[in-house]
Design goal:
The protein is α/β, with parallel strands linked by helices. The chain has one domain: Class I glutamine amidotransferase (GATase) domain (Rossmann fold, 3-Layer(aba) Sandwich), CATH 3.40.50.880. The chain is built from seven helices and 13 strands. The strands form three sheets. The chain has an eight-stranded mixed beta sheet with strand order 2-1-3-4-13-12-11-8, with helices on both faces. A three-stranded mixed beta sheet has the order 5-6-10, with no helix packed on it. The chain is globular and about 55 Å long.
Length: about 220
């Protein structure tokens, strides 16, 4: 029997799941990549990654019953990590596919970057950028996955959309790109980020290590 905490990565057919799995294994997790609702419910911690269109992801989650499994995990207060599209799916809806509903765990919507024509910035926002931590995150605490990470640290982003939470108190960090946007959100057992920790070197490893530690304590 492995002494490592078991973390399930939700496999709904979108995203490079193996890179997330390898990064979590590197920091001490026993990882299962699965599309089984039962295995997701029984895991100690759950990761919802994703790359691609909001609508397609939402439809796949619902057609496979994975949405219900995710809601059960969230209700059980198990450690939960959303990455990139996995952050956006936790909200109610997205401008990318307005007819498709998100998981609705957090109230708010997902919007597309609108940059000035004269701006040298491009959409998608692709590459390295820094975080500005919220006061709550700077205060620390056991469930703070950004603990030990400097605001000068760089994380890797690839996205054209970003979430706009109705409740700003859940914002864990903001990032500047033609304006300020929510780059991560946190509430109780749930942390979700727009950037890719698995592609972000030492700071990303620290975040994932913090997550694995949280899973092992639950």
């Amino acid at each position: 029997m492995s002494s490592k905490p078991t973390i399930a990565i939700v496999d709904y057919g979108m995203g490079n799941l193996r890179s997330v799995a390898k990064a979590l294994e590197k920091v001490g997790a026993h990882v299962i990549v699965t599309d089984s609702p039962a295995k997701i419910r029984s895991a100690q911690g759950v990761v919802l990654p994703g790359v691609g269109a909001f609508g397609e992801a939402s439809r796949r989650l619902r057609s496979t019953g994975l949405d219900k499994a995710i809601h059960d995990v969230l209700k059980q207060k198990k450690p939960f990590l959303g990455i990139c599209l996995g952050l956006q799916l936790l909200f109610e809806r997205s401008a990318e596919n307005p007819k498709d509903k998100g998981l609705g765990y957090w109230k708010g919507s997902v919007k597309r970057f609108k940059l000035l024509a004269k701006s040298k910035l491009k959409v998608p926002h692709m590459g390295w950028n820094t975080l500005r931590l919220s006061r709550k995150q700077r205060a620390g605490g056991r469930k703070n996955l950004l603990q030990g990470i400097s605001e000068k640290s760089y994380f890797y982003f690839v996205h054209s959309y970003y979430p706009v939470p109705k409740n700003r108190t859940i914002i864990a960090s903001e990032t500047d790109y033609g304006g300020t946007f929510c780059s991560s959100a946190s509430e109780e057992n749930v942390f979700a980020c727009q950037f890719h920790p698995e592609k972000s070197g030492a700071p990303g490893q620290r975040l994932l290590r913090n997550f694995v530690k949280e899973v092992s304590l639950c």
